[in-house]
Amino acid sequence: MSQKLSLCVLLLGVLSLNTPALAQEHSHSSSSHDSHSDHDASDSNATHGTPSAHVHGEAHLTMAVDVQSLVMELEVPLDSLVGFEHKPTNDTETKALAQAHDLLAKADALFKLNEAAECILTSAEIDMPSFEAGAHADVDAEYQYQCDAPERISSLEVSLFQSFERIEVLKTIYLSDDKQLAATLTPDNTAFALR
Ligand SMILES: [Zn+2]
């Protein structure tokens, strides 16, 4: 009997050794609401832990499947959405920002998963930038899906390029229990094969 127990312990040890550390550090130092603008350029030494390089024309999409939940995280330089990255200075720019936000919120028009996977969008969260003087700005979007047949996920069709012509490249990563796939999508190559 004690033999059986020690086998279990051994197995556990092996399992925990083999578990890949998927933990990604997502340090989001939120420098919140600087509403008063006494300019003091002393905050330039803050090294932000940016998850991916900020390149105009280049967006990033990470898809992660866990059981029946699919989370898609999109990161786009604001320039690639509206053509500027400063705080809006007139009505046209304010409208452009609102329009970009609304387009991003309609995930079903931007991303189509193959129907057999039966994925339904359950939430879309669009994080517009808080503008800092002289800094670049990114927009982050997080889409959550509930999939009834996640094992049948086989393709993603992206229409992002039609809504935002300044996006030239979408670097895409797909992660699940048994798969890690990557693709570089462009206006001429909008389908990501997920098998
Ligand atoms: Zn920029």
Strands, total number: 9
Q: For the record, give the distance between the C-alpha atoms at the N and C termini, rounded to a whole number.
A: 44 Å
- Tally of discrete structural domains: 1
Overall pLDDT: 82
Q: Which stretches are low in confidence, meaning pLDDT under 50 for 5 or more residues running?
A: 1-50
Q: Rg from C-alpha positions?
A: 21 Å
Q: Give, in spatial order, the strands making up the sheet with the most strands.
A: 4-5-2-1-7-8
Order of helices and strands: HEEHHHEEEEHEEE
Verbal overview:
With 195 residues, the chain is of the alpha+beta class. The chain has one domain (53-193). It is 23% helix and 31% strand. It is built from five helices and nine strands, in the order H-E-E-H-H-H-E-E-E-E-H-E-E-E. It has helices at 2-18, 78-82, 91-105, 107-110, 160-163, and strands spanning 58-66, 69-77, 111-113, 119-127, 138-147, 155-158, 169-175, 180-185, 191-193. Strands 4-5-2-1-7-8 form a six-stranded mixed β-sheet. Strands 3-6-9 form a three-stranded antiparallel β-sheet. A hairpin with a 2-residue loop joins strand 1 (58-66) and strand 2 (69-77). Mean pLDDT is 82; it is low at 1-50. It binds zinc ion. Zinc ion (ZN) is lined by residues 54, 56, 77, 79, 85, 136.
Descriptive keywords:
single chain, 195 residues, alpha+beta, 6-stranded mixed sheet, 3-stranded antiparallel sheet, 23% helix, binds zinc ion
Task: Summarize the helices and strands and which ones pair or pack.
Blueprint: H1 2-18, E1 58-66, E2 69-77, H2 78-82, H3 91-105, H4 107-110, E3 111-113, E4 119-127, E5 138-147, E6 155-158, H5 160-163, E7 169-175, E8 180-185, E9 191-193
Parallel strand pairs: 1-7
Antiparallel strand pairs: 1-2, 2-5, 3-6, 4-5, 6-9, 7-8
The structure holds zinc ion.
The site of zinc ion (ZN) has 6 residues, from loops.
